Amino acid sequence: xxxxxxxxxxxxxxxxxxxxxxxxxxxxxxxxxxxxxxxxxxxxxxxxxxxxxxxxxxxxxxxxxxxxxxxxxxxxxxxxxxxxxxxxxxxxxxxxxxxxxxxxxxxxxxxxxxxxxxxxxxxxxxxxxxxxxxxxxxxxxxxxxxxxxxxxxxxxxxxxxxxxxxxxxxxxxxxxxxxxxxxxxxxxxxxxxxxxxxxxxxxxxxxxxxxxxxxxxxxxxxxxxxxxxxxxxxxxxxxxxxxxxxxxxxxxxxxxxxxxxxxxxxxxxxxxxxxxxxxxxxxxxxxxxxxxxxxxxxxxxxxxxxxxxxxxxxxxxxxxxxxxxxxxxxxxxxxxxxxxxxxxxxxxxxxxxxxxxxxxxxxxxxxxxxxxxxxxxxxxxxxxxxxxxxxxxxxxxxxxxxxxxxxxxxxxxxxxxxxxxxxxxxx
Amino acid sequence: xxxxxxxxxxxxxxxxxxxxxxxxxxxxxxxxxxxxxxxxxxxxxxxxxxxxxxxxxxxxxxxxxxxxxxxxxxxxxxxxxxxxxxxxxxxxxxxxxxxxxxxxxxxxxxxxxxxxxxxxxxxxxxxxxxxxxxxxxxxxxxxxxxxxxxxxxxxxxxxxxxxxxxxxxxxxxxxxxxxxxxxxxxxxxxxxxxxxxxxxxxxxxxxxxxxxxxxxxxxxxxxxxxxxxxxxxxxxxxxxxxxxxxxxxxxxxxxxxxxxxxxxxxxxxxxxxxxxxxxxxxxxxxxxxxxxxxxxxxxxxxxxxxxxxxxxxxxxxxxxxxxxxxxx
Lengths: 427, 328
Hints:
Low-confidence stretches of chain B: none
Strand content of chain A: 5-15%
Distance between the termini of chain B: 60 Å
CATH superfamily of the largest domain in chain A: Response regulator
Number of strands of chain A: 14
CATH topology of the largest domain in chain A: Rossmann fold
Largest sheet of chain A: 8 strands, mixed
Helix content of chain A: 40-55%
Oligomer: heterodimer
Largest interface: A-B, 44 and 53 residues
Shape of chain A: globular
CATH architecture of the largest domain in chain A: 3-Layer(aba) Sandwich
Order of helices and strands of chain A: HEHEHHEEHEHHEHEHEHEHHHEHEEEEH
Strand content of chain B: under 5%
Distance between the termini of chain A: 50 Å
Radius of gyration of chain A: 21 Å
Order of helices and strands of chain B: HHHHHHHHHHHHH
Structural class of chain B: mainly alpha
Structural class of chain A: alpha/beta
Number of domains of chain B: 1
Helix content of chain B: 55-70%
Mean pLDDT of chain B: 90
């Protein structure tokens, strides 16, 4: 509600005079509807970081950040409407937090020359910058996630999983189907048996699938879910007494929202992570001083430090760092979307830089190039500790299996290039 | 007994339990349609609103807390007390009665005599309003609902069936609770409609509005009563589904599960809602078990609608619905 009032006030201000800021970033959020519980913390983290930069630093390179929020309700059509409504306002970057919306925006944003950044979601083969000039998915993608999950399973089994069965329980949508090809390839490579269990969205009823899991007893269940599907899956796993530590969710199935309804029974549940999952970072002191204490939080201010708040924060951090790089390369603070793309293609996040930002150890180091829009593809495993009420990282960041993934990305992206008559770049 | 037969029996039992949960949602639709001819699009959102209110009361949350904090710059979130589940349920029922009264006073009484499609459109508006109201009152974060119902594998059934067949059946304690609650609910509704003055009045209005009015039955009062009962049924459905998945705004989507049940069972029959729910529950689970794996799975949603469509072809009024004949 606080956000709504702020938005209303901002709207009136904008209507009354010229824009107050030069670096415009739309936030295609979802604070209403069935996926609001996940959309709110992400958007809060995203917006609070931009507010922090404006309040503490006066913007980036002297230019204040102008955030335009547009409600999508996690609905693809509304997401496209939001894009069309905001792109003419000088939008530098879109981070739509929806694979469905991303797929629709890829051709549009490519034609309009506006970068899209899909952190850990979207079209995986967009990692190939030679084909997808305007789309980025660093620091890791869905296929990296599947590969890191299998690596963890390999580690737990001394490198031999040839006698194991891994089931993929997935949201029956473009998002959920993303890791299938990767897991098929990895199954061939490591010899494990791979089974698939689709769940029809939204996923409130999963009894059939969990009865099958109870009967077949796969050694591991990899969960690619979103929204209500996740807590139901974890509840049903607990109901059929499936071992929680043999269940590994993608990072979109690894938030407090997902484990809360199962209570203590979710203890030990694992999920992939591409960044830290708690609030033990100096940047939170600044957020408290410049955002919370001033009453400028995007939402109710009750989401700070949650997994999805951190993800929104991380998305915003990477956007701001790309803006800095773009300003440096262009020699001007008032950058264009094309210059923003250049900045993103030259982005390098090092531990030293993360420490300067007040985020030591928050995420792995990675580098983006013209050819590689997906970063290094590192992921870690987090585990839910019910007693402490937090996820904890239980592994170091692991490199995904590039030997398997790179050819798949090449194949899929080149097919896209051929279908759309795209000339390869970065040659 | 062959494993496949045992699995099929287990799937059937779980399908029956799932069917009861579908029927709980469908019942609310039937009650309102039967009494007023309105297809209440807001029924799913009513379940969500009721569950949100229940959790909010149980946790001592201040309604409209975010709004109050935004306007007055305060930082209040809770009253600092917890309310026992039973008392919270009673208070939530009172809220749903108040809601029923408000719907009738502010919306329905102004639309008496309008075409059914107008009333349907009004309920669409009502659904979106109620969703926004729920958001403002209680917030959009996911909430855990625990009214003390047991959850998880029923050990007795598991062990008994294991001793008998060498394979323990999985039955969820929550589903068993839902079955008992649904049985009590239906029995209560039948007793109410058969043996109370208000129940008979409700049936009279359902049969013929004009005739009921002519013998002095107040239509407004009956509509408030009907929406109150539907609100109570929504609360029960909200508790059962909310205990499974947590209370979040996706709870409103449970209405999608009720539609094929209504199409199959008929929009005007309480037994139809129950039987329809059971048929859909068992049908979709058995289809997924036997055929799903061969065609890529995730068949349950479309199979339920397909089954309902097949019934519609042969019995447009549903298995238990009343055949409406209009003479010109």
